[in-house]
Amino acid sequence: MSAMITPGTGRDRLQSLERGLAVLRTFDAERPSATVAELAAATALARPTVRRILLTLQDLGYIENSGSRWRLTPRVLSIGQHYSVSNAVIETAQPHLLRLAEQTGESASLAALDGTEVVYIARVPVRRIMSINIAVGTRVPAHATSMGRALLAWAPPETIQRVIETTGLPSLTPHTVTDSSALRSGLRRVREQGWSVVSEELELGLISASAPVRDPSGTVIAALASSSSTGRSTPAALEADVVPRLLTIAGQISADLGYREQARTSASTVNAHEGFF
């Protein structure tokens, strides 16, 4: 995954911080350690700049080196931990995720939209159903997942347009929706029915269902998902057996966050985005 820096226009942006974060983001499962030269190539930064950033991060305890290679330290986990502690939806949703996993016998997840991707913010794994490693912090394309569809269905028109233009809706399997008109039509259906089921668009053999989670104003801030495999279930079975549970539990999480049914009218008025489909 590239950590290339995109130029900003804001006069208040702190370039040194942006560069430091770009270096941190370069480390991933495919690049658990790297040399200064590799990091410079990945971030398009000069080697002396990368070296200064690494030394600063080393002094702060976030980076360590062995010979010529650098790697993250466990301290970086504290950044995500601070997010979890400060984000009420995660703490509120955790017992509900456990209940959903117990009821379905399948993995339960909570995700939020970040740019053009969906990021897992809480998860209760049951079985390993994907070849990629899924954990809190994992990012997946919004257009090819039930969580992404549940989040995009209530997103502003410019967010949907940005996903389409930035990603190009790449084909991840033969079943991935790659046509923008088809995606918009699918989002309209999700909005009308209140839930999303996606089959084998992210990965062959993977099917999932999602429902929106709302804040007190009625704004969709997360998606609750249950995932299975084509060997254990079908899209029709998910719709019949899992979606009702999802809607109930997503509603309970929303209620715990302060959302009330009477807020729905005003929320739908604010977030209707009529005509953007």
Overview of this structure, please?
A hairpin with a 2-residue loop joins strand 2 (63-66) and strand 3 (69-72). The strands form two sheets. The protein has a six-stranded antiparallel β-sheet, with helices on both faces. A three-stranded antiparallel β-sheet has the order 1-3-2. It has two domains: 15-73, Winged helix-like DNA-binding domain superfamily/Winged helix DNA-binding domain (Arc Repressor Mutant, subunit A, Orthogonal Bundle), CATH 1.10.10; 87-271, 2-Layer Sandwich (Beta-Lactamase). The longest helix has 22 residues, at 235-256. It is α+β, with helices and mostly antiparallel strands. The protein is built from ten helices and nine strands.
Q: Any key phrases for this structure?
A:
6-stranded antiparallel beta sheet, Beta-Lactamase, 3-stranded antiparallel beta sheet, 2 domains, 277 residues, 19% strand
